[in-house]
Amino acid sequence: MIPVAEFKQFTEQQPAFKVLKPWWDVLAEYLTVAMLMIGVFGCTLQVTQDKIICLPNHEPQENLSDAPCQQLLPRRSPEQMGALQEVKGLKNNLDLQQYSFINQLCYETALHWYAKYFPYLVVIHTLIFMVCTSFWFKFPGTSSKIEHFISILGKCFDSPWTTRALSEVSGENQKGPAAAGQASATIVATAGAAPGKAGEGEKEKVLAEPEKVVTEPPVVTLLDKKEGEQAKALFEKVKKFRVHVEEGDILYTMYIRQTVLKVCKFLAILVYNLVYVEKISFLVACRVATSEVTGYASFCCNHTKAHLFSKLAFCYISFVCIYGLTCIYTLYWLFHRPLKEYSFRSVREETGMGDIPDVKNDFAFMLHLIDQYDSLYSKRFAVFLSEVSESRLKQLNLNHEWTPEKLRQKLQRNAAGRLELALCMLPGLPDTIFELSEVESLRLEAICDITFPPGLSQLVHLQELSLLHSPTRLPFSLQVFLRDHLKVMRVKCEELREVPLWVFGLRGLEELHLEGLFPQELARAATLESLRELKQLKVLSLRSNAGKVPASVTDVAGHLQRLSLHNDGARLVALNSLKKLAALRELELVACGLERIPHAVFSLGALQELDLKDNHLRSIEEILSFQHCRKLVTLRLWHNQIAYVPEHVRKLRSLEQLYLSYNKLETLPSQLGLCSGLRLLDVSHNGLHSLPPEVGLLQNLQHLALSYNALEALPDELFFCRKLRTLLLGDNQLSQLSPHVGALRALSRLELKGNRLEVLPEELGNCGGLKKAGLLVEDTLYQGLPAEVRDKMEEE
């Protein structure tokens, strides 16, 4: 006997797969179980009981025909039947083995194949139906996607974040405390409360006491850090799964194929069963050539299970018909609507999450199947497709991680002396920032998609804002706040057209620093947004690849005091617009590919500082024209290719700082000594072999940098510069240091490392301001100084 449990493995699937089984698949499973029981029952009877019983036919040989027994017997008259009864006790002269032989032989030759194999056919067909139904759950190409989907679906359904997100959105869509109470009750009921009178009573109680709902927030709104991290991981899984599954439609195709196969199988079974079911008969005539063995050639056989098999066959055909109708309905469901597209329109309208995207292909098909089971699954799953929901979760996690206490530990004073909070590479902007009202400068770097909330207005001391590769949206209501408070704005992005437009409307702005590139086709025009609204702008810094000075710079010509253009090596051609900057005091043209000093600079009568760092200047003959810039005090010509300084540098009497480091100078003109106002001279990193004695005329010189040259000796006149405080002579070829160095009483820093000195003059002790920390020299040379000199330098 074959127990039904042996076939259990054919119908077993993971319990979680039931969510992908619509009602017709569930009904089909029950029908297959019923059909399988019919087949197993018939097979059991076949194995355990006699299949057929045969008796010899006593009709005379000449009266025998091919007609079956049931057609021969009714032709007998009552008298003949009585005669048969009289001979009933006659022996047939057959023993048990002969009967068994005749039974087996007639079963194989006379009984119709349908009557013999009916139960086995039922089992085989039912197993095929089972395989067709569950094949997509077993096939490697589909089962992996299904298992992954079911796993994610269950986690999304049970995630506390799902309930919280739906609760928050529902709360936003309601007005008033009573409406909020209704929303909370609805969410709790939807999340799993059993419907019934008790549920209605609870809802009425909530509506009757709205104050309790408002003052006692539900537990589901509390989300700890661990649950937040789990929800964050779910968002990433859903994104990757969606990308993977939406690429193809193998699930949809496999489901259609197995359904079509079941329909074809149903039609074939139905046709041949209706044709052959009448072949199951109770009496069977059997004619076999066994007269030499048994003495008889004709037998009348009784198919012992014919009556039961005929009843089972009709039951089986009925189940098959119902099964076939479900398959036909499945085909209708598959083709009467586009199952490869799924719209969350109703979910968007119900939850208010307008950014939930529609899906397609296998992702859409599985969601359609889920809706046949319970549409609540897709509704809760949709929460993890919403970017709004994800951003809220990120915000919650950020607030958990970045508490006000932790943020206060990051507060530091920046170069301008403002109390600055710097945040880098965060997934968002913590709301807790706006609890630090003492913040004066906010620096945000590599933070994507920032949207400032209304809480920004709580930073009443905010004066400086830096957005470095951090795209930002600012509500209109906050623009007024920033316009009144912000003094310094820094924006760095890939392209300047990404700079938020609201930046150019901050009327109270005093400093604007922009960094980004113009597109190649627009670099030559270098079009920048209008700066007319920036009525108080004093400092403008632009780091880009502009081909000319942006025309909009002239919008602030009347009050702009400092302009910095850093071109990263791109050549700046058109500079005539600089002439309009009459109030400009500081000008930086760094890495602009300049080969000559721009003539437009000489028209800037108010100019005090000029920086031409990192250009391609070879000649500075135009330096004579700087005499028109009567207020010029600082000139930076460092990091160029200047080979000599012209003699008319003497005209720059008002110059106080001159930077010529990192050039190709080998000599300095003696006329440099006529720049009587010079306080700082930096000619380090050149190829100087000597200094002109006239350098001693620089009586106001306080800082002299001669490091990294080829100086072999210093003129004694140098030590006439009695105000010298810093003297840098490192990495030269000096073999001795003049004892006149003791005349530099104000000297506080002296660098001598990297020379050929063998001894230091003891007159260094006369430099009252020089201490050990300010003397940069090899230890052996320092130890060679007299003890009293060293003691004097080491005094506090």
Automatic annotation (TrEMBL):
GO MF: volume-sensitive anion channel activity
Source domain of life: Eukaryota
Keyword Transmembrane helix: yes
Protein name: Volume-regulated anion channel subunit LRRC8E
BP GO annotations: aspartate transmembrane transport; cell volume homeostasis; cellular response to osmotic stress; cyclic-GMP-AMP transmembrane import across plasma membrane
Assigned protein family: Belongs to the LRRC8 family.
Repeat found in the keyword field: yes
Catalytic activity field: taurine(out) = taurine(in); chloride(in) = chloride(out); iodide(out) = iodide(in); 2',3'-cGAMP(out) = 2',3'-cGAMP(in)
Stored SMART domains: LRR_TYP
Gene that encodes it: LRRC8E
Lineage start: Eukaryota, Metazoa, Chordata, Craniata, Vertebrata
A Pfam family per the record: LRR_1
Gene Ontology cellular component annotations, sorted alphabetically: endoplasmic reticulum membrane; lysosomal membrane; monoatomic ion channel complex; plasma membrane
Cellular localization per UniProt: Cell membrane; Endoplasmic reticulum membrane; Lysosome membrane
InterPro entries from the UniProt entry: Leu-rich_rpt, Leu-rich_rpt_typical-subtyp, LRR_dom_sf, LRR_domain-containing, LRRC8_Pannexin-like
Keyword line: Cell membrane, Disulfide bond, Endoplasmic reticulum, Glycoprotein, Ion channel, Ion transport, Leucine-rich repeat, Lysosome, Membrane, Repeat, Transmembrane, Transmembrane helix, Transport
Domain (LRRC8 pannexin-like TM region): residue spans on this chain: 1-331
Membrane topology: Multi-pass membrane protein
Transmembrane segments: 27-47, 117-137, 313-335
Listed SUPFAM superfamilies: L domain-like
